[in-house]
Amino acid sequence: MEKTLLSSRQELTELILELTKIAKGKGVLSLPEKYHEIDDDFMKYALQSVVDGVDPDSLKAILSEKKTEMIANLSSNLDLFIGSVLAIQLGKEQEVKRLCDE
Predict the structure, then answer these.
(1) What does residue 38 show for φ and ψ, rounded to 5 degrees?
(2) What is the C-alpha separation between 65 and 52, in angstroms, rounded?
(3) End-to-end alpha-carbon separation of the chain, Å?
(4) How far apart are CA 31 and CA 89, in angstroms?
(5) Per residue in 64-85, pLDDT tens?
(6) 3-class SS at 45?
(7) What value does the CA radius of gyration of the chain take, rounded to a whole number of Å?
(8) Is 9 or 58 the better-scoring residue by pLDDT?
């Protein structure tokens, strides 16, 4: 099963520990060998940035900004979905259209 940030905490922890073992044993340049197990652009970007040698402070700032964007996008999408589901339940097709046009 491919891992994402929406995987269970246990699955994510197992992946992180595997990546740590690889980095310690073979070096960070070997991290891409686990990419096939990851189906998450954020995670792949972060790992590739480590492989590419991006400065830790710069990487922290970049990932923090991306995290903020991801949270805002997820929140917006959840709001759209919840509002639409409730409108569908109430038979309010125009409300669904309004929400989707926002």
Answers:
(1) -115, 125
(2) 19
(3) 35
(4) 47
(5) 999 999 999 999 999 999 999 9
(6) helix
(7) 19
(8) 58
Spatial distance between the Cα atoms of 54 and 92, rounded to a whole number of angstroms: 50
Which range (3-12, 25-34, 51-60) has the least confidence? Answer: 3-12
57 vs 38: CA distance, rounded Å: 24
Q: Measuring CA to CA, which residue among 24, 65, 18 is closest to residue 45?
A: 65
Q: Are 41 and 73 in contact (CB under 8 A)?
A: no
More confident residue, 39 or 4: 39
Residue type, 65: E
**How far is 101 from 66, CA to CA, in rounded Å?**
25
Contacts of 34 (CB under 8 A, 6+ apart): 15, 18, 19, 22, 47
What single-letter amino acid sits at 85?
V
pLDDT confidence bin for 1, thresholds 50/70/90: low
pTM above 0.70, yes or no: yes
